[in-house]
Amino acid sequence: MIYEALSCITEEINNSLKRKLQINEDKVILCGLVNQDGSSAIQGENKVIITLINVEKEAAGMGAAKNNAGVFTATAAPVSINLYVLCAAYFSGNNYAEALRFLSFTIAFFQSKSIFSVQNTPSLDPGINKLAFEMESPGPDRLNSMWTTLGAKYMPSVLYKVRMLTFDDSIIKEYRPPIVGTVGNALPA
Fold first, then answer.
1. Does residue 184 have a pLDDT over 70?
2. Phi, psi torsion values for 64, nearest 5 degrees
3. pLDDT tops 60 at residue 19
4. Span 2-168: which CATH code?
5. How many helices (H) and strands (E) in the chain?
6. Which top-rank group of organisms is this from (predicted)?
7. Nearest-5° angle of CA 13, CA 130, CA 79?
8. Which helix (H) or strand (E) holds 136?
9. What's 24-53 look like in SS3?
């Protein structure tokens, strides 16, 4: 569900930029910043990177599941989480002004549309009730700590807290890839 939420938002920003700037290229990508070996995970340059930096359990409404009689049930209550999403402008040195421009476009996008639901975002997964984006303002110490923890060099960026995804066992689905037979090795029916 996290992937579905963030890929949908990435697509929404790209569609908005394509309409407003009359461009064909996707300028926003969903991507990590750094691979496990410390190398850059970003493919290409001159992009706005959307990356998940933290998942937090929502404090409101926490507690064990009780049935109507007030008895604790064996099934766990759904859990609601908040996501911390970083939007970083990864542009080459000669394009610093463009980095700031696209970061501004990203902020303007979330100012004009901070709530996403199936009603105003048809491509949003139907299992997601609502996503609400709130800009965070980390101070210099927290910002330095965040970039150090990420293992990346600072880029012009903005941090959003995304409220809230709710998880229960209904989102767990078994994935079975299709079985493909080779010529001459037909699979029994």
1. no
2. -75, 155
3. yes
4. 3.30.2000
5. 3, 6
6. Bacteria
7. 125
8. strand 130-136
9. CCCCEEECCCECCCCCECCCCCCEEEEEEE
Q: In whole angstroms, what is the distance from residue 175 CA to residue 160 CA?
A: 31
- Which tokens in the block code for residue 9? 């938002």
- In angstroms, the Cα distances linking 26 to 17, 30, 78, 102 are 8, 11, 35, 12
CB atoms near residue 115 (< 10 Å):
12
Paired sense of beta strands 115-117 and 28-30, if any: unpaired
> What number of CA atoms fall less than 13 Å from residue 188's CA on the CB side?
0
Q: Which amino acid is at 17?
A: L
User: Residue 142 CB: number of other CB atoms within 10 A?
Assistant: 12
**Residue type at 150 in one-letter notation:** L
CA torsion 57→34→134→107, rounded to 10°? -170
- List the chain domain ranges: 2-168
How far is C-alpha 36 from the chain's CA centre?
19
Quick: pLDDT tens for 126-166.
888 899 999 999 999 999 999 999 999 999 999 999 997 77
